[in-house]
Amino acid sequence: MEKIEIAHGSGGKLTRELIENLFLKYLDFEELKSLQDASYLKLSSPNIAMTTDSYVVKPFKFPGGNTGKLSVCGTINDLTVSGAIPKYLSLGLIIEEGFSLKELEDIISTIAKTAKEAGIVIATGDTKVVESGKCDGIYINTAGIGEIKKELSPKFVKPGDVVIVTGYIGDHGIAISLAREEFDMEIPVKSDCAPLNTLLTPLFDISGLKWMRDPTRGGVATVTVELSEMSGYGIKLFEDKIPVREEVKFVCDMLGYDPLYLANEGKALIVVDRKDAESTLNILKEHPLGKDSAIIGEVTDSFKGVRLKTRIGGERLLDLLEDDPLPRIC
Amino acid sequence: MEKIEIAHGSGGKLTRELIENLFLKYLDFEELKSLQDASYLKLSSPNIAMTTDSYVVKPFKFPGGNTGKLSVCGTINDLTVSGAIPKYLSLGLIIEEGFSLKELEDIISTIAKTAKEAGIVIATGDTKVVESGKCDGIYINTAGIGEIKKELSPKFVKPGDVVIVTGYIGDHGIAISLAREEFDMEIPVKSDCAPLNTLLTPLFDISGLKWMRDPTRGGVATVTVELSEMSGYGIKLFEDKIPVREEVKFVCDMLGYDPLYLANEGKALIVVDRKDAESTLNILKEHPLGKDSAIIGEVTDSFKGVRLKTRIGGERLLDLLEDDPLPRIC
């Protein structure tokens, strides 16, 4: 049997076979293997962060990852930028009838590998199967819980604080765009999809760390606009400081995209007190995922909203994304 | 604008409007309203239970509920039968482009109402929109966490223990079957979809409480077969003791279904020490959701597997569900 059948989602014999022969081959947490309705977990503190995301990226396989890797990294990153140490993830699969078992195995093994490398546990799971034409291969939901170590909030952000990005932006959006094969371009851009916990959790010790966010849907522009609204202050961004790969610029020029609105899956925006900017950058640059970190902006009380100081000396107002040129990028 | 558009899932302006104008109108948890990547939560203990389920029921609206109610009840019930007090739920929505905003509002308001009545909090959420034909209206994932109050496990189950069901079985499966309108029958069967925490958590004080499970996919038969495998003992069920409504029997006869394999969404199977059977029944019967509770079987070491003592005096061996006659019932 090489394809998923409706009966794999019935809760009966085939469901059990799928779980035992495929899922538990890679996911080996004892509580998960007990196949009870819920898993018993131990935390070191009752103060937790919780998040959830569904991943419907199209195509489900792309240079630099697949929806499995994305679903683990995305939820790890949401917890981490909230000041928490990610501990446990749930995994909810919705699979289309006829989906290849080989592809499913690739996805599950990637999930297991990514989780292991990031030091988190897939604690509980669920699988549903829907008829052909009622899904797009596979949709994955992960919810995650982590232990809060550092409270972060837009309300801590103050004028004078600096805005840091942890590396090149727009890679994920462009990788997905190219993977759709709607354009006949052979340009080697890989998604930046990565778990950011080992990069960012060392920053929790920095007293001037105010706020972090991973700029996924809507990109750097949308996230800074939201920060501006929630903090009540203006954000000034410097175009010439924002790291964008030449290949990404090239594709953006060709297709009329703006890198500032493209999704990232392995980058964080960070606001720190100016006095801690240097030490923050030093910590980030020591890590492979943060070596291209840069200060790209600052918080100001001289205006509201987000203004981009362009290379040619002008200023551009940034707003929330209106209509994504690339839906289903995560 | 009366229908969901792709841009509602872009993470930009329309996403924000949807969240603020619709979701936050009903879901009013402060941390959720802060629109951060994760919510900060306080538990009273670091020993937690975690579970997840995706809900893809077809049709998404049926007598007795909708997928929203199901998604809250199902996850509450998974935590409760694990011996935990359900506290926080995450909510992940995958919505099909073109889905009615009115239907979405019905679903969200039902989620809010069900959560409130059950005393749990929708703590964090995510919304994705997929193209028309890549979903079946709406799919919902909920993950839940609860505080462990009573450790339950099939390994505590011993010969002589009794098996209790908390009421009539098969209602949900039949309600879904009839709601599909493939059969021209006007029979008033409503789904039993209900949150079981207020019914079952009072049982946590009973020392002889061993194990609980809500017999959803695969029904009472599949769940007891799994209990038998995991405990290592046989389960004897008495057909004449199992509560099945006349209407459910009638539809089963017409369509060739077996009530023992039909899904339930508001029932629990409970194994208790025989000495505590009476007190357990008394507690259950005091609650509207448990008034038809009955002892339907017992655990034995005289055989393995599950045997049903039939009305006419014979015995039938029960096995895991092979192929669900009714896929996507939850």
UniProtKB/TrEMBL annotation, chains A, B:
GO biological process: protein maturation
Membrane-spanning ranges: none
Domain PurM-like C-terminal: 158-304
Origin superkingdom: Bacteria
Protein name: Hydrogenase expression/formation protein HypE
PurM-like N-terminal domain span: 37-148
Organism encoding this protein: Desulfurobacterium indicum
The family this protein is said to belong to: Belongs to the HypE family.
